[in-house]
Amino acid sequence: MNTLLEINNLSKTFQLHHIGKHIRAASHVDIRLNEGEFVGITGKSGSGKSTILKCIYGTYRIEEGDIIYHSKKFGPLNLATASDRQMIYLRKHEIGYVSQFLNVMPRTSARQLVKQAIVEMGEDAMFAEQETENILVHFELDRELWDSYPTTFSGGEKLRLNIARAMVKKPRLLLLDEPTASLDHDSKLKVKQLIEQLMKEGTTMLGIFHDLEFMHHLCDREYNMQNGEFTKSTSFTNS
């Protein structure tokens, strides 16, 4: 298998200036992710899971280590030192991120948000419109909400829209930050179905969860994290 992402000795510290304290969020983290794999990271809240995803996505800059991503456009690229221009391109075309929270432009409807994500990939407006409708139907988002502003949505509706917007782009690498948080069982199954579909199409995924019970039959490996460090890793035979 070809390696898509390799993290070596990643460390991230936050400095709380008002109390003069340093918080070590991640310490000497190593991960290798092969093309087509789905790797899960588990651990309690505050253990440092989200920090890893945000370092990959470029939201956080790291003090130590390397994050080597094998980009289709740029080739092997260290995301720890990538330029803003390179990161913007990767976010539009290669790396997707699903967060528990939906941050959107004001006065932009749910339909427009998803459609814009597809158009960014270079698709025409007619294709983007059809794909937008398909995925909004898949996630059973009420048609009356399609042309409404997401600021009026419930927490579960916002999360479903966020997942739809990221998954519809079919990125090479998809980062999942608690993708099933606050969803009911039926909505979780919808997420699982799309993950299975993306895996068949070759998308590589790294996801964080409080527990992997729901995803056990999908994940290739699990890393457990405590206090910013991996304590154990488990490989599954279902891949």
TrEMBL record:
<dbReference type="InterPro" id="IPR003439">
    <property type="entry name" value="ABC_transporter-like_ATP-bd"/>
</dbReference>
<protein>
    <submittedName>
        <fullName>Alpha-D-ribose 1-methylphosphonate 5-triphosphate synthase subunit PhnL</fullName>
        <ecNumber>2.7.8.37</ecNumber>
    </submittedName>
</protein>
<dbReference type="GO" id="GO:0061693">
    <property type="term" value="F:alpha-D-ribose 1-methylphosphonate 5-triphosphate synthase activity"/>
</dbReference>
<keyword id="KW-0547">Nucleotide-binding</keyword>
<feature type="domain" description="ABC transporter">
    <location>
        <begin position="5"/>
        <end position="239"/>
    </location>
</feature>
<comment type="similarity">
    <text>Belongs to the ABC transporter superfamily.</text>
</comment>
<keyword id="KW-0067">ATP-binding</keyword>
<dbReference type="InterPro" id="IPR027417">
    <property type="entry name" value="P-loop_NTPase"/>
</dbReference>
<dbReference type="InterPro" id="IPR003593">
    <property type="entry name" value="AAA+_ATPase"/>
</dbReference>
<dbReference type="Pfam" id="PF00005">
    <property type="entry name" value="ABC_tran"/>
</dbReference>
<keyword id="KW-0808">Transferase</keyword>
